[in-house]
Specification:
This protein is of the alpha/beta class. The protein is 39% helix and 18% strand. It is built from 13 helices and 15 strands.
């Protein structure tokens, strides 16, 4: 086979060998590998131009590939770069050497990976990113959980918060000591980008990311949000090409940053947790290593329709972690004004305790003053008699009149009995009968 002028020119441009034995498919594979490799001089950062060049190269090599096949092959080449899969497997008899996993936040956010934070609007995505920045810079546990300690610092952070107006970002940062009242940014925050900068993942934005990550290697990139960076280009965060833009960014970050944490909006389905709670996760499949999803708690609708709706006034949130690490399902609390988070405990149990406390408060609020006083005297009587089944009505009544230095009257005992039964009906006390004696004790939560 002779080399045509067009093929010779193509080989010259992409530094390919010419000759009779050069396989057209190998030629094309080399070309598209160079097109997606940011370290190669022929890297094409514009996704549309990249696909055009790849399609043209296929035609020049007499290959019949559809646009979808071109796109799929380019994305696969990008994923190969991210995963660094040049050498695969360990041979028998060889020593298996694996790098120890390193954590940005112990047991939760790994270094060298892309972690997503997914939530509906106003659940707290940006405040969660601010919490992460504060944890890393101030060397405090993440969300107050002693098991989620940050890697030893100092850390350098890039806040690519192009989904947020600068005034909101400043408010969040000031609340956590990451910006002075006069607007001076913490020196460990290398750069803060906001909505006013008008950046997304187009040519201009990619140039900025290349420049800042090259100038500040081993920094940590916190992005808010995936949607804000792809919507101006593709109109949606669910188009296949939008995932390609994320792969481009992650290709840089894998080699130039310590970690990348990106915020995602959630889909309409409320029951999606973990990775599925990340809108556009289909287009970004295989790029995000782990996902932290945050969710409103729910309550019965006030309309009486028995529908469950988001309880947006409740400061508690459900946090689910899914990905590279143990599955996590926690109840957390956000103090919106202070911008701080607190881990309450494992979701099911912590939520049951929270609901129990709410029910108790509501029940106590419905008691009369006399019933509330009797409820308190049960505790005092229990401390005195320490019976395993609780206290009797006579013991509670005796405590109520002990300051009068006399025994309780029959009328006082009967009144106390009625008040104990009212507290039992409100599920604040439990009643046990042993023989002919009735005992009352504070109701213990199941489980």
């Amino acid at each position: 086979m002779t080399t045509t002028p067009d093929q010779a020119e193509l080989a010259k441009v992409f530094e390919l060998p010419t000759g009779h034995n050069q396989d057209p498919l190998d030629n094309w594979e080399s070309i598209i590998t160079n097109l997606v490799n940011p370290d190669h001089p022929h890297f094409e950062k514009n996704i549309i131009r990249r696909q055009i060049r790849a399609q043209t190269a296929a035609q020049e090599n007499d290959l019949r590939v559809s646009p979808d096949q071109v796109r799929a092959r380019l994305i696969q080449k990008q994923r190969d770069l991210i995963a660094d899969t040049d050498s695969k497997g360990v041979a028998g008899g060889d020593v298996a050497k694996f790098a120890e996993k390193t954590w940005l936040i112990q047991g939760l956010i790994a270094e060298g990976c892309l972690t997503g934070i997914a939530a509906f609007a106003k659940v707290g995505k940006t405040k969660a990113l601010t919490e992460l920045a504060a944890s890393l810079i101030h060397q405090q546990s993440f969300m107050g959980n002693p098991e989620w300690m940050p890697a030893p610092g100092p850390h350098k952070l890039i806040l690519w918060w192009t989904d947020q107006p600068g005034v909101d970002s400043a408010q969040y940062l000031k609340a956590r000591g990451l910006m002075e009242p006069d607007g001076t940014l913490h020196p460990q925050i290398i750069k803060l980008y906001t909505q006013e900068d008008g950046l997304c993942w187009d040519d201009q934005g990619m140039d900025e990311i290349i420049q800042i990550t090259t100038a500040e290697p081993d920094s940590i990139l916190l992005t808010d949000s995936f949607y804000a960076n792809v919507q101006p280009i593709y109109g949606s965060d669910q188009e296949a090409e939008s995932g390609g833009a994320l792969i481009d960014v992650q290709t840089y970050c894998t080699k130039r940053t310590k970690a990348h944490v990106c915020a995602f909006h959630s889909p309409q389905e409320k029951d999606k947790v973990g990775v599925e709670a990340m809108r556009g996760h289909g287009s970004a499949k295989g790029v995000v290593s782990s996902t932290i999803s945050l969710h409103f708690l729910e309550k019965k609708s006030a309309t009486g329709s028995n529908k469950w709706v988001s309880d947006k006034e409740n400061p508690h949130r459900r946090l689910v972690f899914e990905g590279r690490g143990p599955y996590v399902d926690m109840l957390v609390r956000l103090d919106g004004a202070a911008g701080t988070w607190e881990v309450i405990g494992k979701f099911d149990r912590a939520l049951a305790e929270l609901q129990s406390d709410d029910q108790k408060s509501e029940s106590i609020g419905g008691l009369t003053e006399g019933q509330r006083q009797t409820l308190e005297w049960v505790g005092a009587a229990s401390e005195i008699w320490k019976h395993p089944h609780g206290v009797t009505v006579q013991q509670v009544a005796a405590c109520k009149v002990q300051h009068l230095n006399r025994e309780a009257t029959g009328s006082e005992i009967e009144t106390t009995r009625k008040q104990l039964r009212a507290c039992t009906k409100a599920e604040l006390l439990s009643q046990t009968t042993k023989g002919n004696t009735h005992y009352w004790a504070y109701k213990q939560q199941d489980g």
